[in-house]
């Protein structure tokens, strides 16, 4: 006997009832993106390995990217690790693009990491990006749009942590001299391994106890974004060259629409090597499995393909983590709108009449199900007990002979007998009002 076929670890099937909900959530996200002037685009699932190499840092490129050699051409390929590097490749190869170039993309990416809660090997990301603008309002627009998405989904307990990549670089270069990149990578693991884990990582780098204590004290700084002026005063005393990135954050703050949700956090690093300026991460106060969104400015990434500077900024929503939270909080129920008609055929002679009526409903845009197994009435009723059924339509001999339709509202039991055409109009009106 053959063994039961299994899905690889970190990958999942999505049956229709789950996929319907996922698409409703995805379409909600997509709608907010488009309202905020981020039109859709897509890129291939597979890139040449040389396209991704050197963009993310050694940990991602040595351990997390799905990489393989084509046995026919001997070329090396990789599954896309994120949606940002493919975007940079696209922009660099299309010099005719009008700037600023904006887009959203909701597509799968792959990570070769150990599956756990909120982390899968194949998962959806929802990205928005603006290429060509060096001004802070483009950074703020990313966060404002992400915030609108979360509010629309009912996740209004979100916290946005912001920082500027240059602040930590400047501070660490002055105090530590070398090892800046290694230190930043250690700090980036804070959410995964905690303070004690970060201390161990810093010890592995070879830092002494005094330097480690100083780093831990520094990254503990977290305050409201409204207190940036005080933060600036304290940090500029350490190094005057910090004034520029701090002034940039202060200007950026004025374009933010959800300031009560936003904090300045010096522990925020964003581990990917391509970040250059303002960075952010979004998490939830109640039961969030880590961050649910993040991003920032990456002004040097496109230059790696194009050879010339082109500023860019963007952000990514983790659809899987968001969907997990929506389910945990039972918010997905608001997407389970009753919008379907189920046709119950009372006898075999009326089946073709019922089939024609189902076709008429579908041509009018009404979601309709009819039994294809020619089951008896009781089994049809049982099949028609789905949560999203609004109306049961009964069609038998008398309905066929009288050219009318019997409609029963599933929740209330309200029963109507209407002529064929008026039955369609009635269902349409009821669906629009709910």
Automatic annotation (TrEMBL):
Task: Enumerate the InterPro entries for this protein.
Answer: aa-tRNA-synth_II (IPR006195), aa-tRNA-synth_II/BPL/LPL (IPR045864), Anticodon-bd (IPR004154), Anticodon-bd_dom_sf (IPR036621), His-tRNA-ligase (IPR015807), HisRS-like_core (IPR041715), HisRS/HisZ (IPR004516)
Q: Which residues bind L-histidine?
A: 82-84, 111, 125, 129, 270, 274-275
**Taking every annotated instance into account, which residue ranges of this chain make up the domain Aminoacyl-transfer RNA synthetases class-II family profile?**
1-326
Q: Does the keyword Aminoacyl-tRNA synthetase apply?
A: yes
Cell location: Cytoplasm
EC number(s) on file:
6.1.1.21
**GO terms of biological process kind:** histidyl-tRNA aminoacylation
State if Protein biosynthesis is listed as a keyword.
Answer: yes
Cited PROSITE patterns: AA_TRNA_LIGASE_II
UniProt record similarity statement: Belongs to the class-II aminoacyl-tRNA synthetase family.
* PANTHER family associated with the record: HISTIDINE--TRNA LIGASE, HISTIDYL-TRNA SYNTHETASE
- This chain's protein is named Histidine--tRNA ligase
Organism, as annotated: Fervidicoccus fontis
